[in-house]
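Supplementary Text 2. Reproducibility record for the structural model of the 330-residue chain.

All settings were left at their defaults, and a single model was retained for analysis rather than an ensemble. We include the record here because the model underlies the residue-level annotations in Supplementary Table 4.
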Amino acid sequence: MAAAAPAVIPSPSVLDSLSSNVNLVGGLWFVSSALLTTYSTTSFLKYQHADSDSCKIHVPNRLHLPRPQLLTLFRFGGSLLLGLLLHPDVHLISRIRATMATIPDFVLPAAFLTIANYANSIALNRIGISLTYTSKCAIPIFTVLLTYLLDGPTALPALPTLLSLVPIAGGIALASWDSPVFEAKGFSFAMISSSAQTALNVCSKKALAKTGLSGAEGQRAMVAVGLAITAVLFLLQKQPEHCVDDEIPPPSWLSLLAVTAYHLEYVLSFTFVRMVAPVAYGASDAVRRLAIIISGHYMFGHDRFTTVNVLGIATALVGAMAYAITSHAF
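Retained model, structure tokens:
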């Protein structure tokens, strides 16, 4: 009897070659964000059970949570598990110990990561994809404000960079002006997410520089802390007296897709940012937001915008690209 053929496993050189291909990594980041994450996240938040009496579905009471909180819990837990298991190094215990040892350096970034993710989920659930991701263009404004507060006026960027904040602010205002999906609470959470994301960018860079970890290793430590924070809030959550369909978890396949998309997007993002210049990353991120807005509109198509709203979205995105370019050119 002929011996069984050995399993074909990609060699480390092949994996290294693929992970060092900037076009491949950047393209996968764009596609995963615009298609996989956009579809899975919005579908998770908006999923409605076909059974009109969905409260009869057998679900443990402790899983009756608002969708944004449940999505955050699933994302952190699933991403941590995938980060620990999907690794070329088979020594799982040592990887867990290494992650635990780095947690103290990532507590503050993880707190901002939790706020940014949770607030973003609430914003998506209330005001939709387009307005939420247009609001993300405010991150450069918050970055300048945080820089001024921490390091003083001498640390502010050059005048052309500061001027690029004008179309960003104006674009956000126009995108929100009389928008059919605008809501004060949802827009406020979008702004909270943007400000928390700004603080996360600053704190995580300092933590990564201090520890010398890779982006993926730092992300694993942050989601571990984020999971602990979310789990505590989860346990303290007061359970509703009556079942609400929005608090019934979506099907398992959709939850798994949302977790996988989240983990893939963040790993690709951390990989891509180390491969390109900051100006290229900033410009790519602005284009990525535009791709998310367009794909979300075509996938779900329930956001009708006026000409003023469309002009505002375009203006804010152009301002974000101008900020990325001028901040490293002057």
